[in-house]
Amino acid sequence: MNTAIAFLLSMTFLISIGGLFLMVWGLANDQWGDGVAASKSIFAEGEVGRVEDPAATPQQREDLREEKHAGDLTIDQEELDERRVYDRSSRRPVLWWLGSSVMWLLLGSVYGIVASLKLHIPDWLGGQEVLTFGRIRPAHLNVVAYGWASMSGVGVGLWLIPRLFKTELRGRGYATAGAIIWNIGLLAGITAIIAGFSSGLEWLEMPWQTDVLLVIGGALAAVPLMLTVLVRRVHHLYVSAWYLIAALVWFPMLFITGNLHHLFTGTEQAILNWWFAHNVLGLWMTPLGLAAAYYLIPKITGTPIYSYTLSLIGFWALALFYSQVGIHHLIGGPVPTWLSTLSIVTSVMMIIPVVAVAVNHHMTVLPRWRMVLISPTLRFVVVGAMMYTLASLQGSMEALRSVNTITHFTHYTVSHAHLGVYGFLSFIMFGSMYFILPRLVGWEWPYAWAISAHFWLVSAGFAIYFVPLSIGGWLQGLAMLDASVPFMDSMRLTLPYLTARSVGGSLMTLGHLVFAVHFFMVLLRLGPRRELPAEFVLGRLVGGRAGVTRAPDPTSLPGGGAVASEARA
Amino acid sequence: MTRVLGIIGGVGMILLYATLMLVVMPTIQLRTGEDPPEALEPYTESQLAGRQHYISLGCVYCHSQQPRDPSQAPDMARGWGRPSVPSDYSYDNPHLLGTMRTGPDLLNIGARQPSVDWHMAHLYQPRAVSPGSIMAPYPFLFREVEYLGDRRALTLPPEYAPRDGTYIVPTQRATELVDYLLSLDRTYPAEELPVADPDAEPEVPVEPTAGTGDEEPRAAADMAMERTR
Q: What ipTM is given for this predicted complex?
């Protein structure tokens, strides 16, 4: 028997036995029993049942209140005051990471549109070497992956850390420095790609010399996590914390190993390449997105997560299965059969963590689904969580050989990648920022219509992007498999779908522009004041100290005025 | 603290295990007993430089270099060559297997289209020789000159021809890139037999092995390459 297969079988056996022992040990030591307490650990005493959306208008808050009535418990004011201190402690690094990510989002959108247009207008800007498709496309990928997705994910993570561990963020200077170094590294890396110094490996195009800066920047961002964990004041580690810790362990392992690709040649290097590339999605972006969703969905709806035990299964199953799916990118290629089979099996096994997470997220929202229609923040997060379910299940199907034969090498894969990174991660990041920014800056989103415009532009744009491109990609795959169809026709038939993609992408970019202007208006405290950020949807003042009956000046308060409002009521 | 360490250790170990399975094991398997095929020449200096231009201009984002088995896709019928095997890539660093076929597979483009003139015109303006193509043009790899000297000018259809009295000539980069493209030729017989099912009739023409027939089917079963099911 092949040694690799023998090894695989014996490892599977050992891991199963090990897992069984762990489970028996966990049951014997009551490790499964603290779910309810743990799921409530993100709420203050008496906070469960209170709806919170800092981006909502007064009218929306009224409507939200009708959807969910708070209990009679009095809320623990002291804990809310402490939370303001936590938010203030993470303010500077979070704003650095998030602000940078929004700038990268704009650049990434422009690159995306240019690349998309070039596919159906090939001679447009064709004479410029720095604008050729083969450079704009990798620049787009690296900007959105390492600029937008990674930086927004780290920013949201840094904001979550003090809230999850109930203590101030320690070592925040490291995280701020990390953002600056990360930005410099990324700028250098993108410049290298545009100038023609790509390393040639997808997802690893930036030269290792600039990747070093990303490793340093990322490591600096992980320092506050470790320092804060050491002084945490909670017994339970909330599920978001697991995902954050895991992501920050995984990313350096992946990124450093990926950059050792010079030690490999040919097929071996392709294997390393796709092991890395899919893990960036699965073990870096996904945990960051899920950490945010696991915090925000319960927080906004005022409901603890549906099943805490399920989230435990979802987390460990994701770690075990997602880490092994990468070689489904080489199905049908010159790699050993057992290897792609392993990745196909684990890709399908991903259904377990995905369904676990889906049940948890969607069952938490379902009884209060009308809130999705009202709350601007929740709308983004819930749509993002739904796209996670869809993208993951689609991914499991795409790994099957029968499907992969059609979809591989086509635009269907491109479309699928955007369902994951855009539909899932970006939507959750948008929602997170709508929640976080008023808290940190002490300034509300000035225009409610801009939030709606952002949502509908990116949603409609993405639908116009995703649906036609998936259909076009599928037809392209079928045409390529048909020997009687000339190859040229498989390309030609995609042209209308590629044009639709450009239309959708333009709408998405327009939405990003609205969002970015709005974002920096809050950051600079511009635009009309609405009122102070609402802490809870309640008909009474909850945040102010006794005697405060009108909205005080935000700047005079700790936490930059992150105080409850509804003072008028 | 135990839990934090448990998570850090747990997720670290899981990724190590995945790396062992997905990277280390296949690398060990692929490296043992596999020499570059005799028929495969290492790249020349000019071809390597051309390969660097191929990377720098991002050709890999539209062109794969991995023809598939006939039982999976009609790549051979399209003239893209036999299914590739790991040893075909012995000199490839970085690898350029690719994930997209907006354009055709290029692993055997040198055998399929050996004309330098065609490649030059195609790179300068793909639609000059391939109407309807959506490939990016690379005019910056060429120069417009008034005195030809002993250089060879591009032959272009009238709508893409330069103004009268001038000629389009390739720069060194274009020459190197075409040099690389012409080196893409893996038409020699594969060393390992790529089989999906050891009992099935081989669908790929393979050089008959000298021998009595009762030998071990060499690395074939061990090295069963991912082809199709």
A: 0.90
